[in-house]
Structure formats: structure tokens, C-alpha cells
Design goal:
The chain is built from four helices and no strands. With 176 residues, the protein is mainly alpha-helical. The protein has one domain. The chain is rod-shaped. The model has no long low-confidence stretch (mean pLDDT 88).
């Protein structure tokens, strides 16, 4: 009889232990899947598009600087060329609006607890640039009140995209 009780008790302990280990594994798998889902959303809806737009805008900006846009210290809003205005108004500003809209529409996908400074500065710059463009159309051109955050913004986007892409690959068991 004692052997039967011991065997039954051991079976119950093994069953409970197997159940607890299975529950733990299931919870870990659900957390991993939730993390993968969030990272996929971050890359698809925010950081992927932002990274692409930033890269293309930076490529255009570098080409413009190499062609005819003077250094920051030598710029005069009143003397800007029509060529620069076309590129600014048809390419750079619309792309900046798209990036700003992505940041605002998908702010919930940002990892940080508060909006990172490079993103806040970029959104503020886009607003200031809109006023500057309006003043130019009214005949009183001047530089935007808030400057583009420059490398801080591009570095933040590139680093965030790279970090998320690496984590996505790690969670999916892929190596680069």
C-alpha cells in the first residue's frame, strides 16, 4: 500500500511539475510572440518608413549641398535661388511632412517613455519651416525659427531601425 501511495504521489508531483513547466514555457512563448509582433509593427509602420525617407532626404540634401546650396553660415533666405526653392518645396518639405506625420500617427510605437528630443526637434522644425515658407510667399523671407536637428535626428532614426532589425532577426532565429 505504501508503494502505491508513493507511486501515486510521485505521479501527481510529476504531473504538477510538467504542468507548471508547460505553463512557464507557454507564457515565455506568448511574450516572445508579442515582442515580435510589436517589433514588426514598429518596423513596418514607423521606423522602416522613417529610415527610408530619412535616407532618401539625406541623399538629396547631400547632392544639393554639393551642387549649389551654400554652407549654413553663408545662406541668405532673401537670396535663395529658384532651383533651391523647387527642390525644397517639391522634395524636401513634402518628405519632411510625411516623416512628421509618421511620427505623430505612430508615436505609440516609440520605445522610449517620452518623445525623444531628436523627434520633438524635427517636428518643431517642420512647423517652423511651414511658417518660414509662408513668410517667403508673402515677400519677407527668413530662416526657419527652429533649425533641423541634423545628425541627432538621422542618427536616432538609423540607430533605432538597426536595433529593432537586429532584435527582430534574433527573435526569429535569423542571423545577418
Amino acid at each position: 500500500m505504501t508503494a502505491a501511495i508513493t507511486t501515486a504521489s510521485a505521479s501527481i508531483v510529476v504531473a504538477v511539475l510538467a504542468f507548471l513547466l508547460n505553463q512557464r514555457a507557454q507564457i515565455r512563448q506568448e511574450r516572445r510572440q508579442a515582442r515580435i509582433t510589436r517589433i514588426n509593427s514598429q518596423l513596418r509602420e514607423l521606423y522602416g518608413p522613417l529610415n527610408t525617407l530619412v535616407s532618401s532626404n539625406e541623399r538629396v540634401w547631400d547632392a544639393l549641398r554639393a551642387s549649389f546650396v551654400p554652407d549654413k553660415d553663408a545662406r541668405d533666405p532673401a537670396a535663395e535661388s529658384g532651383e533651391w526653392q523647387k527642390w525644397r518645396d517639391q522634395v524636401l518639405i513634402p518628405t519632411n511632412h510625411r516623416m512628421r506625420d509618421l511620427i505623430i500617427q505612430h508615436a505609440d510605437l516609440i520605445d522610449e517613455a517620452v518623445m525623444p528630443l531628436p523627434l520633438r526637434d524635427f517636428c518643431a522644425h517642420v512647423l517652423a519651416l511651414d511658417i518660414s515658407a509662408m513668410e517667403e510667399r508673402e515677400g519677407s523671407p527668413r530662416s526657419a525659427l527652429i533649425a533641423h536637428p541634423g545628425k541627432d535626428f538621422t542618427a536616432y532614426i538609423e540607430a533605432s531601425f538597426s536595433r529593432l532589425k537586429s532584435e527582430q532577426n534574433r527573435l526569429l532565429g535569423m542571423s545577418l
